[in-house]
Amino acid sequence: MLTYGGDMTATDPGSGRRRTGDETRAAILTAARERFAADGYERATIRSIAADAGIDPAMVMRYYGNKEKLFAAAAEFDLRLPDFSALPRDQLGSKLVEHFLTRWEDDDTLMALLRAGVTNEAAAERLRQLFAGQLGPAIGKLTGGGPDTAIRAGLVATQTLGLALCRYVLAVGPIAEMPRATVIAWLGPTVQRYLTDPDPT
Amino acid sequence: MLTYGGDMTATDPGSGRRRTGDETRAAILTAARERFAADGYERATIRSIAADAGIDPAMVMRYYGNKEKLFAAAAEFDLRLPDFSALPRDQLGSKLVEHFLTRWEDDDTLMALLRAGVTNEAAAERLRQLFAGQLGPAIGKLTGGGPDTAIRAGLVATQTLGLALCRYVLAVGPIAEMPRATVIAWLGPTVQRYLTDPDPT
DNA sequence: ACCATAGGTCAACACCTGTTGACCTCCAAG
DNA sequence: CTTGGAGGTCAACAGGTGTTGACCTATGGT
C-alpha cells in the first residue's frame, strides 16, 4: 500500500510487474527535477519528491545517498546547441534565442537550475559551467576563439537568463504572454550583437 | 547579557543608553535585508536575523508580527528613477543601466528581492510591481504612454535583471569582473533599443 | 522446495523552524 | 517610593527536515 499519496507522476511498470531499480531511479529523478523546478532547492523536500515518485523517502537515500547528490544528478543538463557554423551569420542571434526558448520549455532542468542556483552554490556553479563550458566553446568556434569569447558568452547569459527569469520564473505579465516570434524579434538582435559586434569600449 | 552572538551589526546607542523601540525596529530591518539578500527567503531565519540585530528572536515577532510581514517591510524599495525627460534621448539606455548598477550596489533590498522572488510569490509580486509601477510610468512619460509601454518595461526588466543575476547573484566570472563602464557600453544600446526602437514585428 | 537478494516499508533519530506566553528589569512620571 | 509600561529574555510548543537502520516481501535461480 502506498501511504505517500502525493500526485503520483511515477512511471509504473506495464503489467503487474515489480519495478526495476533503474525504473525507480528514473522515477525519482523525474520527480526531483519537477520539484526542484517548481520549488527551488530548500523547499523541494525529499519527502515530497518520494511521494511524487510513489515510493518511500528512504528509497531516495538508497539510490542517491543524500539530497545534495540527488540534486547533482537531477541537474545534469546538455544545452544541445546546434552547429552554429552551418548557420547564416546574421541569423545567429535569432536562432540562439529560439533554441533557448525551446530548450527551456521542453525540459524542467533549466528551471530547476535557475530556481536553485539563486540560493545554492552547487546549482550556481552548474549554471556557470553551462555558459562557460557549453556556450563559450560554441561561440569560440565562430569568432575564432579570441579572449573575448568568455565575455560574449557571459553577455548572452545576461540576456537569456534574464528572459527566462522574467518569462518563466517571475511571470512578468508582458514578457510571459509575449508570443515566441515577438520574443525572438526583440531579443534576437541583442544576442546577435553580443555574439558578433566589436567590443564597444 | 547577549547570548545570540552572531555578527553584531546592530546600531547600538551611543552611551550606555537603552535602545529605543524605533532603533530596534531599524536594527531588525537592516539585519533582515542583509540576511534575505545573502540567503534568500527560506534560508534567512528569524533566529539569524535576531542574532545579527543583537536581540532575541521574540523581539522580531513583537515588532513585525511574523516572517512574512518582516519580509514585506524589508522589501520596501524605491528605484529612484531620475527624470528621463531631462536627458538626451540617445543616452537613455546608458543612463538607465548606470542607474541600475548604482541602485543595486548601494542597497541590499534589490538583492533580497531577487534572491527571494525566485521561490517566494510575495517577493515576485514586489519585483513585478517595481517594473510595472515604477519603471513603466517613467517610460510612458517619454514614449507618449502607448500600449507598448508595459512591453518595453518588461524588455528592460529582462536585460537588467539578467545582468544583476549574472553579476551579483551567480557571479558569472566575466560579467562580475567587468568594469562598470564596459557593462554600460555593452548593455546601454540594448536598453536604448528596448526603450525607443519601433516594434520589430 | 529453498533461499539469497533486489525492491520496498516503517518508525524513529536529532535537529531546526516559526511562533507563543510567561517572565524579568530598568527608568521616568506621579 | 511606588508603579507602570517599554524594552528585553527565556523556555517551550508543534511541526517539518534530512537521514538511518531494522525490518518485510516477492521472485527467480538452484
From TrEMBL, chains A, B:
GO molecular function: DNA-binding transcription factor activity; transcription cis-regulatory region binding
SUPFAM superfamilies in UniProt: Homeodomain-like, Tetracyclin repressor-like, C-terminal domain
Upper lineage: Bacteria, Bacillati, Actinomycetota, Actinomycetes, Propionibacteriales
Chain intervals for the UniProt region annotation (Disordered): 1-23
HTH tetR-type domain boundaries: 22-82
DNA-binding interval(s): 45-64
Protein name: TetR family transcriptional regulator
PANTHER family: HTH-TYPE TRANSCRIPTIONAL REGULATOR RUTR, TRANSCRIPTIONAL REGULATORY PROTEIN
Short name of one Pfam family: TetR_C_16
